[in-house]
Amino acid sequence: MDGSVQTVYPRKNWSSMVLYNCGHPKNKVLTPEVVNSQTGDYLHRFQWLDDGEIGEVPFVWNFLEGHNRAVEGDPSTLPKAIHYNRGGSWFDAWKNCEFADLWLDEMEEYMKETKKSSGN
Hints:
By secondary structure, the chain is mainly alpha-helical.
């Protein structure tokens, strides 16, 4: 993304969209102290869990722009949450990336609402 060196590691991109089962006994280790002191590896790879304790999130909820594909005519494959893992439309080099229009529309709407609520 944006010229940054990327590292390949297990479970890459999983942590971009996570639903935690806060009632699961193993997740009780995630105290503020642990989260603030553990490495990125530990947290992004869910190293406190065994593989069988990690469920799936449908790809449409962690849609990797440039990797996942929506199927024309099949609305069930359209993204619900987009991970702009190559760089998003807020970067000049990615102004025309896939789904850039959605992000730019949301930003424009946010700016309008912010301006309206501040009285300007």
